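Appendix B: complex inputs.
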Amino acid sequence: MSRRIKRLSLCLAALLLLSVLSGCHGSRGLPAFEIPASFDDGRPIEITFWAKNDTNKTQTTIYNRAIEGFEKRYPNVHVSIRLYTDYGKIYNDVITNISTGTTPNVCITYPDHIATYLTGSNVVTPLDALFADPAYGFGGSELRFDGPDADEMIGKFLDECLIGGEHYAVPFMRSTEACYVNVTMLESLGYELPETLTWDFVWEVSDKAAEKDADGVYLANGQKTMIPFIYKSTDNMMIQSLAQRGAGYSTADGEVLLFGEETEKILNDVAAHTATGAFSTFKISSYPGNFLNAGQCLFAIDSTAGATWMGSHAPHADISPDKFVEFETAVLPIPQADPAHPKMISQGPSVCIFNKADPQAVLASWLFVQYLLTDEVQIAYAQTEGYIPVTRKAQESAEYRDYLSRAGEEGELYYDVKIAATKLLLDNIENTFVTPVFNGSASLRDAAGQLIENTAKSVRRKETVDDAYYAKLYDDVRSLYRLDQLGGRGAAAGRETFGPLPATSVCLLSGIAAVWIAMGAFLLADRLRKKKSARK
Amino acid sequence: MKKILALVLVMLFVLPLAAACKKDDASKPDVKGEGVMTHAEYIAAALDTQVIIETYVQAKQSWWEDKATVYTQDKDGAYFLYNMACSEADYAKLTPGTKIKVTGYKSEWAGEVEIIDATFEIEDGNFVAPALDVTALLGTDTLIDHQNEFVSFKGMTVVASKGADGNEAPFLYSWDGSGEDGSDLYFNVSLGGNTYTFTVESYLCDASTAVYAAVKNLQIGDKIDMEGFLYWYEGVNPHITSVKAAG
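Resulting structure:
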C-alpha cells in the first residue's frame, strides 16, 4: 500500500471513528425492545410495579391480590410493588430514575407524563407490536389467564394512550369530574335542581348562598363558614371551560393557545364570584368534600374517583362525625356552557412499561399489565371508587351489571353516591375528551390551573384584577412553566421530526464521501497507470 | 506592658457583655424591627392580608423545587411557613434557631393558619423554643392558641387504630393502613377517656428517624411522652417528632 493510500486510510478511519463517537453522543439508551420468540419461564424474573392508590386500603389490597394471582400463573416472575398516593410524586421519581437507569418495569402514570419520559432513547416500550402479537398480545394463544381481546378494549380510552401515533400505555381505570350537589340546601334557597347544570346557574345560586346576615352568619346554612362552590382541580376547570366554549388550549403539536380571549372571560367569572365569596378552590381552602359534608358547600366539584368522600353518609371522611350534616346529594356532570353538547374530561390512571436490557423482563411486564386488565382486577378496582373498567368485557359482565343495579344497598360497596358517579361516566363516555399530549403538556396543564388559582388569590387579597393584571399574570405563568419553550416542537418527544442536519454533521458526512471518492479515484488512476506500464 | 494591660481590660469588659447578649437571645422578649408585626398583631391580622414577621426556624419539613415548608416560632407564638420561596442553598442555612424575616400572606387551609407565597431573609439572632406541655389543654378551646408551636404531651396511652380492613394495630401506615414503610404513620393515644390521632409526618420525620422507629415499635397499652408540632387539619393533628416511655 502506498503512503498516499495509508494516509487516506488513516483519514477515513479517523472520520469513521468520529462519526461513531458522534453517533454515540446522546443515544446511550437501551436498544429498542424486540419481542422474544417465547416467554422464558425457566429462570427467575424480577419486575417492579410503581402503583398509585387514592389513599385507599381496598385498592392496595386489590393490587396485592393481582400480584398474587399473576405470580401463581407465572411462578418464575416476582412482582415488587411500591405504593404512591400522588401522580406528581411518581412522575418526579421516574424522572430521577431515568437518569440512573433504575426506572420501574411497570408504572401507573398519565400520558402527559409519558411524553416527558420519551425524551430519553428507548426509555418507554412502544406497545403496538405487543398488542398484536399472536402469542402474547391481547387474547394471545399463550396467555395463562382470560384477558381482554383487542376489540374488548374501549377504543376511546386506548386512543388516549397514543403518543405520536404509537401506544405507549394502556388505560387502567377511567374517571371524570362530577358536581356533587347539596340538593337540600339548593331547594331551601328556592331553586330546583336542573337536569344539566350550566355555569350561569351555578354562579347565580352560589352568589345567593354566599349571603350573610349582619352577624356574619350565612343564611343558607346558619353557620359562620360557607363556600358555596369549590373546585378541586382548577387545571381541569380551565381546560373543560375552554373546550365547552370551543376555545383553544393547545394544538396537537404543542402550540400553546391557552392565553386567548375566552380564558380572560373565564377568569373574569372566577374573579367576580370569588369577590362575592361564592367560589374557592382546593388549593386555597381544602378538600371540597370536607365542606360539602359539613353543610358548608353547595356545589363541590371533584373526581368521580373521590365519590366515597362525598355526601352525608360518605364512608370516607376527614372531618369528625359531629361535623356531618344530613342532606340529599345529587351527582351531576360538571356545569356546561352548551347543555346540548356536554363536554367533560376523561382522566384516570394508565400503565406504561419501561424498556429494559432483558427483553424477557419487558415481556413479563407486558403479561402483568394485561393481567391488570382481567375482569377480576378491573371490576374489583372500579368498585372502590367512581371509576369505570376500561374493557367492554368487564363493563358488560354480569357481575359488574349486578353491582351497578344495587346502588344504595347496605355497606360501602354499594354506596349510592359512588355508583351514581360511576353511572355518570358510563352514560357520558362519548362526551369525554382529553387534551393533546406532547413533551411539556404536563406543564401547560399546571399553567392552566395556576391562572385560576392566582386570580382567585388576588381577588381575596383585594388586588385589582383588570387587563393589566391579566397581561402580567400571563407573562408570569408563561415564564414559571417555561411555556415559551414549548411552541410547536412536534407531537411528541421521541417522535419528533428532526429537521435538517446540523452543519457539523453535514461536514462530516461530506468528508467521508470525499475520502471515498478520492480513494476510488486514486485506485482507478493507479490501475490505469499500471495498464499503461504493461502496454509499454 | 500598657498595651497588654489595656487589652486585658477590654477583654474583661467585652466578654461578659457578649455572654450576656447571648443569654438574652433566649430570655429577652423579642424586639421587632420596623414594620414587623408582633405575634399578637399577626394573630389579629385578617386572612388573605400581607404579613411581615420575624421568627426563628424550629424544624424544616420539606424542600422541593425552590419551595420550603418550615415550622417557626418566636418567643410569643408560632408561624407555619408553607411553600416559602427558598433556594436549596438557603434551605441548608435554615438550621434550628436561625432568625428570619418573612413577608407573605396569612392564609388558612383546613383549619391550619399559615403563611403562604412568602419570601424571607436571614437575620442575626438565635432562639430554639422549649417544648410547652399542653397535655392539660387537649380537648379544650384554648389548645388552638398554641397552633404550630413546639409542644409536649405527657403520660398518654396508646390505643388501637383500626385500618380499613377492620384489623386493629398500634399504628397505621397512612390514615387507613393503605400505606407502606415510609408513609405517614397514624396512631391513637388516649387521656382521660378521650382519644386523639397523632401523626408522624414522613416529610418532617422520615423512615430513618428515631421517632419513626419508635412509633413502629409501639404496643397497645404503652404509656408514652411525646413532643412535636401542634399542626391542624380539620382539628388538632400533632406532628410528632419524639416518642419515649412515660417518665
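The radius of gyration of chain B is 21 Å.
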